[in-house]
Amino acid sequence: YLVELKRMQDLLNKIEFNNKVGLLYFDGGSYENLIVQCLKRRNVTMITMQHGQPVFHGVNVDRINQNMILNLTSDYIIVTGEFSKKQFEKAGIPNDKVVVLGSWREIEPYSESTSNIFSVFFDCPTLEGAFESNCQMIKMAEEIANKFAETYYIKLHPQDNSDRYSKVRIKKGKIVSTNNTLQDIINKSKYCILHASGVYLDIIAKGKKVYCLQNEIDFPLVENEMDLFTSEDELCDKIINWNNRSLDNQKEYMKDLVGNYLSPDNCFNRHRKFIKQKIAEKNEM
């Protein structure tokens, strides 16, 4: 593996770079990290972007799923909202290196749904305790489906395998095939349930209500108490509470939630202005 990186470095050293600023999608992996470091040594200002939803919960735990934060090498990281900015600051990243410029996602406002289907989104299997958390969500989903006369979809993480859950009791739901896209499943859902998944952003961007399981696994992605549950009874109460709210109240709540995580207003121009500013600063040097 180190030999591959050395060969890549040798190739990069043969290329002339006259650029002032470099922008890349993700710098948490070893190849991307190497590119960033090589270009920074050539006085190129490097900017990376947010991939998924980073959540910081310690430098000595879960170093795989925190690689975007722990491996940050770029001069700046563009994040989608204030929630993400706080995650990098918790890890000791200087405030001025983390720039909130919003998400490019297409945002859909919340609207009432007549669907009797909800969806459960599984954790990534690389997360410690993922299988246990996924099974816990299935058990709760079965209870909720029975209580509200609903059915549900189960969306596996792309790295997961349905065979792992062959012995788990699933009567009211079904594991959807890989042909069903994330967007298709969200669109068909009245609401969604998850535990420790960055798909949270995709769901709220589509204007859907989310309920997040809290257990012994530390993954503080969801902050609002109204969206958190620890048991079937608590989840049931939260669903009823949400349904009893006025539509205007629901819309306002979702708008504030999207603003905190995705800050979508005028994001294209905010990105362009920031990158042009960095190019101008290089030209003045």
Q: Helicity, in percent?
A: 40-55%
- Backbone structural class: alpha/beta
- Strand portion: 5-15%
- Record field, number of beta strands: 10
Task: Spell out the key features of this protein.
285 residues, alpha/beta, six-stranded parallel beta sheet, four-stranded parallel beta sheet, 40% helix, globular
Description of the molecule:
The protein has 285 residues and is α/β, with parallel strands linked by helices. The chain contains 10 helices and 10 strands. A 6-stranded parallel β-sheet has the order 7-6-5-8-9-10, with helices on both faces. The protein has a 4-stranded parallel β-sheet with strand order 1-2-3-4, sandwiched between helices. Helix 1 (2-13) runs parallel beside helix 2 (30-40). The longest helix is centred in the middle third of the chain and has 19 residues, at 130-148. The model has no long low-confidence stretch (mean pLDDT 92).
What's the arrangement of secondary structure elements?
Elements lengths: L1 H12 L7 E4 L5 H11 L4 E5 L17 H4 L5 E4 L2 H9 L7 E3 L16 E5 L8 H19 L2 E5 L17 E3 L6 H7 L2 E4 L4 H7 L3 E5 L14 E2 L2 H12 L3 H16 L4 H18 L1
Parallel strand pairs: 1-2, 2-3, 3-4, 5-6, 5-8, 6-7, 8-9, 9-10
Helix pairs in contact: 1-2
How would you briefly describe this protein structure?
Helices cover 40% and strands 14% of the residues. It has 285 residues and is α/β, with parallel strands linked by helices. α1 runs parallel beside α2 (30-40).
